[in-house]
Design brief:
Shape: globular
Radius of gyration: 29 Å
Helix content: 10-25%
Strand order of the largest sheet: 5-6-7-8-9-10-17-16-12
Largest sheet: 9 strands, antiparallel
Distance between the termini: 115 Å
Structural class: alpha+beta
Length: 828
């Protein structure tokens, strides 16, 4: 039977349907329409905080520490959360909750959280009642699965952090994406890069706060980009899960953050030395000849890397049968020359019948699969490959055990590369499935933590196999918490002057994200060098970075210290030697970082976040090495640089010229002279030059004390540099304190079971006048007057540098005292 038609000529039923479609909101629009909290329906106090049910979402407020509060926001219900970044739960913390008709207040000793009831908005305040951060009108919204939290921009607000991000120190006015990416030869403004650390700090009105978004999906941060109203952070899926930190200093906020995500384990001492790498040193004879050349030229070095060509057809856990036919013998020869060997390890396992890693991984079901259960194959160096699922505990154990052959051969360091994960085509399928400790999830959730979990698997396996010896792990891709397992380098940078300064900013920012052991490919990985001077300048800057490695790609000029002629070789040699004299100072900084989470290479903002000049483009590249030394990096084609002296007075280490706090100066800086300054009141430790870290230095420690009004202290530390015996007290540690008001240098009583390898300490007094004698205990010792600036021990043999070591007729007072004594003081 035919339906009657209306006057429109349309079937009445069809008319009704079309009317409904065009006069109501389409379904897809309903899905994409922003949704938010609404008003509070119910709130319940819990042991560690507060649970809130609102019209549009559920909220958990969890007090972790007095200065750390966690916020979890769900559309419906509550779910257990898995975090690979956070390794510490909430501490028992006192807090009070009060309630009015308009709001709920949660107060700890350090901060206040005020939650308005209708609509729900979160405002964080300090104990003075000053706003640190507050929700915008939008608060937290969902558009589809994407969840975003909006915060009002505060007057004059600046933002720092996010780790490996290009751009300026102050992130204001910009937006960033976290999605670990393989980006060879990246531009100086490219985003994203290889590492995701979704942690930043806001600075305004003499106040500081920090936020860590613990979500491993693709995340975005907007710090007032294309708007003048809000900052925001969002995740493509998953819950809105962030930690809020309230402390009065950058150092304090980092302490809060690393109390959750962990701290760097103390690395082997040899990993602080100079490291040489190339794609590739092959065959084995070339590797050995490289090591011998360092020794013949008397250039200090500790590590040689083997890139992908050491393997048989790029298959991990193998050796090339012809070019590296006797690997154990090779590594033993390198060890005799004082070199440790680090080998590259990629995640791709070649699909090849009979290949042990392939057969075992398939048999034990350890590789990533598609959603239909078929093993995923991606093309990388070995051709078509499977990829281990490092979110599976079984895979991590198996992967760790696979290092046994390499460890037995003598390898002591492992370099994890291509672990974004990278594949040819750069499109890892979203519908690949991961275990997530039994929770099962897709690549969208796994992508950003793949490098972190590979680093974890490598570290845990190597540590177990090395039986009490510390492994060295290096990774390209990472997520928050990677500092627990690995050092990080900034990937395939480019050989140009812009990348010298970009690399500095990246390392400064990574230190502010809780990753202290960081470095760049010195000389640039991609592209030919623009001039011989580029390497000379770059290696002088790199000598003051935590991780000190030169590296270059196949088909380009080699980045060896002698590759650019005699003059650049001498520059390289001088600055590498300077690095080696500072190893006691550096190692003590590493020990501090392993305890406190403090960066080793520090942006000036670490000490002076409220000084507007440290954000100036002219000064934002300056950095601190530890607390005492400040470096002003510059390009290879520049001979002058304007330097800013923040917070206190500073000494030019070449001349002992005193520069006033808050001043600026144009500094002459030819290729042979990198501008380096020592903080007034600080203590800097040196040793004599050694060719490698297993060579025993002299028994004299050099203690440089720079006069200043405020004074300072230094925590000197030493252990065997190789094992974990320090965990059982086998270390030597003492505080060296300069107290100007008492005209005294105090050396505290040593702690630890170990005796220092230093018998004497030569105290070198900079900026002190007319000190003819000092008192040590009850004895009076005459001082000597010497020409001994800080770089002298490394550079005294090199005539070009002597032109800069000019004290203008001044002499430095020095005295030698016994370092083995218990607590004692030096006074004058």
């Amino acid at each position: 039977m035919m339906h009657a038609k209306s006057r429109t000529g349309l079937n009445p039923l069809l008319f009704v349907i079309l009317f409904a479609v065009f006069t109501s909101e389409p379904i897809f629009a309903q899905i994409l329409k922003p949704s938010t909290f609404g008003k509070i329906l119910k709130s319940t106090q819990e042991e560690n905080g507060l649970t809130i049910l609102s019209e549009g979402a559920n909220i958990q407020v969890i007090v972790y520490r007095p200065a750390t509060i966690r916020i979890r926001i769900f559309k419906t219900g509550f779910a257990d959360s898995l975090s690979y970044a956070v390794v510490k739960g909430p501490e028992k913390t006192k807090f009070q909750i009060s309630e009015t008709q308009e709001s709920i207040r949660l107060v700890t000793d350090s901060l206040e959280l005020r939650i308005s009831k209708d609509p729900v908005r979160l405002t964080f305040l300090n104990r003075k009642g000053e706003i640190l951060s507050e929700d915008e009108t939008f608060s937290t919204q969902w558009i589809g699965q994407k969840v975003t939290t909006y915060k009002k921009l505060q007057p004059g607000e600046k933002f720092i952090g996010l780790g490996e991000k290009t751009g300026s120190l102050n992130r204001f006015g910009n937006a960033y994406t976290n999605w670990n990416s393989d980006v060879p030869g990246y531009s100086i403004g490219q985003d994203p890069l290889y590492v995701s650390t979704p942690f930043f700090m806001g600075i305004h009105s003499k106040n500081l706060y920090g936020i860590f978004l613990d979500n491993t999906y693709k995340t975005e941060f907007n710090f007032g980009a294309s708007n003048r109203r809000f900052s925001s952070f969002s995740a493509e899926a998953g819950e809105m899960n962030y930690y809020f930190f309230a402390r009065s200093s950058v150092q304090g906020i980092l302490e809060e953050y690393t109390s959750l995500t962990g701290k760097m384990p103390l690395p082997p001492f040899w990993s602080l030395g100079y490291q040489q790498c190339r794609w590739s040193y092959t065959p084995d004879k070339e590797v050995k000849r490289m090591a011998e050349t360092f020794r013949e030229k008397e250039i200090p070095a500790d590590v040689i890397y083997l890139d992908i060509d050491y393997m048989d057809n790029f298959k991990v856990f193998t050796w090339h049968p012809k070019n590296f036919s006797k690997p154990k013998e090779l590594l033993q020869d390198l060890k005799q020359l004082g070199f440790h060997t680090v080998v590259i390890i990629d995640p791709g396992v070649k699909v090849e019948k009979g290949y042990h890693a392939y057969e075992e991984g398939r048999a034990q079901d350890l590789f990533v699969k598609y959603s239909d259960g078929d093993f995923y194959q991606g093309e990388v160096w070995p051709s078509w490959s499977h990829f281990p699922d490092f979110t599976n505990p079984k895979t991590r154990i198996w992967w760790g055990e696979k290092f046994q052959g390499l460890v037995e051969t003598g390898v002591r360091g492992f370099w994890n590369d291509m672990n974004e994960p990278a594949t040819w085509g750069q499109r890892y399928p979203d519908n690949t499935m991961f275990n997530f400790e039994g929770e099962i999830g897709t690549h969208l959730r796994a992508h950003n933590i793949y490098g972190l979990q590979m680093s974890r698997s490598t570290y845990e396996g190597a540590k177990k196999l090395m039986k009490g010896e510390r492994p060295f792990i290096l990774t390209r891709a990472a997520f928050s918490g990677v500092q627990r397992y690995s050092a990080v380098w900034t990937g395939d940078n480019a050989a140009n002057d812009d990348h010298i300064l970009l690399g500095v900013r990246l390392l400064n920012s990574m230190g502010l994200a809780g990753i202290p052991f960081v470095g760049v490919d010195i000389g640039g990985f991609n592209g030919e060098k623009s001039s011989q001077d580029l390497f000379g300048r770059w290696i002088s800057v790199g000598a003051f970075s935590p991780f000190f490695r030169a590296h270059s790609m196949r088909g380009t000029r080699e980045n060896d210290p002698w590759s650019y002629g005699e003059h650049v070789e001498m520059i390289s040699k001088a600055f590498i030697k300077w690095r080696y004299t500072l190893l006691p100072y550096l190692y003590s900084q590493f020990e501090e970082s392993s305890t406190t989470g403090a960066p080793i290479q520090r942006s000036l903002v670490y000490k002076t976040p409220f000084d507007p000049k440290v954000y100036d483009w002219a000064f934002e590249n300056q950095f601190l090495l530890g607390d005492a030394l400040m470096i002003a990096p510059l390009k290879s084609n520049e001979q002058y640089i304007r330097v800013y002296f923040p917070e206190t007075d500073w000494y030019d280490v070449y001349t002992d010229e005193l520069l006033s706090a808050g001043s600026e100066k144009i500094v002459f800086a030819p290729l042979e002279k990198l501008p380096v300054f020592a903080r007034a009141g600080s203590v800097v430790i040196q040793q004599n030059v050694v060719m490698h870290t297993t060579e025993t230095p002299s028994d004299t420690l050099y203690l440089h004390v720079y006069n200043g009004m405020s004074g300072g202290s230094f925590n000197y530390y030493e252990d065997d540099g190789l094992t974990y015996n320090f965990e059982n007290g086998d270390f030597f540690k003492r505080v060296i304190e300069f107290i100007p008001s008492k005209k005294q240098i105090l050396l505290s009583k040593p702690i630890g079971k170990r005796n220092s390898q230093r018998k004497k300490v030569k105290v070198i007094l900079h900026g002190f006048e007319n000190i003819r004698a000092v008192k040590v205990g009850g004895k009076t010792l005459k001082t000597a007057e010497e020409f001994l600036p800080l770089p002298m021990r490394a550079m005294e043999e090199w005539s070009p540098v002597k032109n800069f070591l000019n004290l203008k007729g001044k002499k430095i007072s020095t005295v030698i005292v016994d370092f083995q004594s218990d607590e004692f003081s030096i006074s004058w």
